[in-house]
Design goal:
homodimer; 404 residues; alpha/beta; Molybdenum Cofactor Biosythetic Enzyme, Chain A; Alpha-Beta Plaits; Maf protein; 3 domains; 38% helix; 25% strand; globular
Chain lengths: 404, 404
């Protein structure tokens, strides 16, 4: 077994405010290669601490991934620590320097003198290009260990790892992971439903993970259990059917987007309590302009009437959070945009604004097409953020089921 | 300075799905006592790994806090590891056993034999009562180090620490932290601007943290450097002035919301490339209905014309991503909503859709009030998500500066 260790570097990661998250991404990638993470260490921007952490990692691990501390400031010491620990010099890489200077020029700025240090490379190391920031990564082999120094920001670390780090990694027997995403069922119910499959697994490992309005079922199998993985996956599919909205890591918004595109249909949305989150999720997908027309966020009753043509007496009689208003919003936005589908959300996200009759978490979702308008009532629990997310999840799920 | 280390124990914390969060709580508590966390380690439920991690912690730290691994199963090895590392025996504490047995009786159950091991106490240790679970904690002094073994679940760990751990802790003087949040400057520039202050700090510690379009400057001072903290903070304020959008941890959207509320003003937003994210951020704040009227997400040119009254020939002549269209969108949404401010974003979030003349990252932001309309041009870098976030940050910042 190849043993890996992840060292997250940065004093902010030792504060009460920040957690290291890069290690989750890296762990997933390492696991797919059959490499097990045996330890994670978090240390500050301090040379002695860094050297000590590297020494510890050399004792217990074969692969060492460091994130952070590659920037231009005096706090950025990861390169220095590696050289101090291995007692090797650092050399200026002229080509690397030219690249960093050009990067700044492209943004119409002159490279500050401090960035020069990012072109220093430990002797014998390979430099890993960074297409999303100025800090190049570093790869070095020493005493049979593989050491990767990666930048801290996830949007720099992830593409660098994918493109330049991963191909250098020594691999063991690969693991295969099958993921099922389930939109609107509680964790305990999914776990119970899957008992007939999961209780008889041999080499395949089963994990269930819960996030608000989102359950993931993971099946992890070593290469030699590929057949068991296939049959277990088939059983999971047979049991959960339409509750599964995606296999592997496609998000609900990506899936709905794909379905809309396939059918050449367009959607428009009208939101109240979710305040734009539904539109934001849909348009988070590149290319969504093909199937998304417009989104209307109406907080005030006047805006609902004026923009979505919701009759004021409907709001008067039933309240803004009601089945008839959700219906009228969905129809209003569909007409306004001349779209195939109108999707609406009105509800109470809290923490204030709830009553006994209409508590926090009460949400109506409307879906209108050329034939009819469907409205469903939900009662979500949790924080404001959670209720908002659950509401958009339910809305996207409603559209998904309609498109299937 | 007293140096602390937190060891989080549990194989699930080495999976791609779970982060240790206890350490954030414990760090806050330790910092308030003037104790600095110098390292965090995460290891699995494995005796050798645990013993090794304890050895490492003994080398670099004075206070060692372990969380997890105190349960009744064979996976729970923290006590065993401590005894193995210190080469001390464990003894059955009859009183503790009676307590655990009683706890089970109170729930109408008989104590399983496996729980007996939770009554085993390392020689010389003090047992820390657990009022929220069956696993008692452990406190031990050895070689001048203070070692605390705490249960993993936060609802057990936190009250145990508060009531029984904290009072045993050797304390130093307390630290004070000052945070400045800066909206729209790059990290290296802020770092450079602050050199005159930061290069001459004596007892105050300076850290700079970067997230997309968001920089945090932290100053951390021991009690006896309170004066230095005050004067350094004043210098930071003098240098960065209006670039600082908040002191301490208020978000940009919360700050803008507070300013709008103070002035009794209302805003409406029109978005293209950010697809609802601006409205979403504003309405993320509870009570935002007081100052947010509506948001219009217009992806298509038809929607811009129909909803926001953007003249089609303007789009024809200058393109949807242009200064005149941003201006027209801001004015259009302000009129539509009859709001005090109209805020608009139009740009190219990528990854596709860029041209040489109008590259990915080009964004125009408009702000209209009763007197005039201001439009600013930005060029953001990074992924689609980052460009979208940066755009909303710039829009909120523009409104903030107007409101000041």
């Amino acid at each position: 077994m190849i043993r890996a260790e992840i060292i997250a570097i940065g004093s902010e990661l030792l504060s009460p405010f920040r957690s290291d998250t890069n290690s989750l991404y890296l762990t997933r990638s390492l696991e797919e290669q059959g490499i097990r993470v045996v330890a994670k260490t978090i240390v500050g921007d301090d040379l002695d601490s860094l050297v000590f952490a590297l020494g510890t990692a050399f004792q217990r691990s074969d692969v060492i991934l460091c994130s952070g501390g590659l920037g231009p400031t005096i706090d950025d010491l990861t390169r220095d620590a590696l050289c101090a620990f291995l007692k090797i010099p650092m050399n200026l890489d002229a080509q690397l320097l030219a690249g960093i200077e050009e990067r700044f020029r492209n943004f119409g700025r002159k490279m500050p003198e401090s960035n020069r240090k990012q072109a220093m490379v430990p002797q014998g190391a390979i430099s890993l290009p960074n297409h999303h920031g100025s800090a190049p990564g570093v790869y070095l082999e020493a005493s049979g260990k593989q050491i990767f120094l990666l930048p801290g920001p996830p949007f720099e670390l992830e593409p660098m790892w994918e493109k330049y780090g991963l191909p250098l990694l020594r691999k063991e027997q690969a693991y295969q992971r099958k993921v099922f995403r389930i939109g609107m069922l509680p964790e305990s119910q999914v776990d119970e439903m899957l008992k007939p499959v999961t209780s008889s697994l041999r080499d395949v490992q089963y994990t269930i993970l819960a996030a608000p309005s989102e359950i993931e079922v993971h099946l992890l199998a070593p290469e030699n259990a590929a057949d068991e993985l296939i049959s277990a996956s088939a059983e999971v599919r047979a049991i959960l059917g339409n509750w599964i909205y995606a296999e592997d890591l496609e998000t609900m918004e990506a899936l709905v987007g794909r379905l809309l595109k396939q059918r050449g249909s367009r959607v428009a949305v009208a939101e109240s309590c979710t305040g734009g989150l539904l539109a934001e999720r849909i348009t988070n997908i590149a290319g969504s302009s093909e199937y998304f027309d417009c989104g209307i966020v109406t907080y005030s009753n006047e805006a609902k009437a004026k923009l979505l043509n919701v009759p004021p007496d409907l709001i008067q009689s039933f309240g803004a959070v009601s089945e008839p208003v959700a219906k009228s919003m969905a129809e209003g936005v569909r007409e306004l945009a001349n779209a195939d589908y109108g999707l609406s959300i009105t509800g109470i996200a809290g923490p204030d604004g709830g009553t006994e009759e209409k508590p926090v978490g009460l949400v109506f979702i409307g879906l209108s097409d050329e034939k009819a308008t469907l409205v469903k009532e939900y009662r979500f629990i949790g924080s404001r953020a959670r209720i908002r997310f659950s509401s958009t999840q339910a809305a996207l799920n409603l559209l998904r089921l309609k498109l299937l």
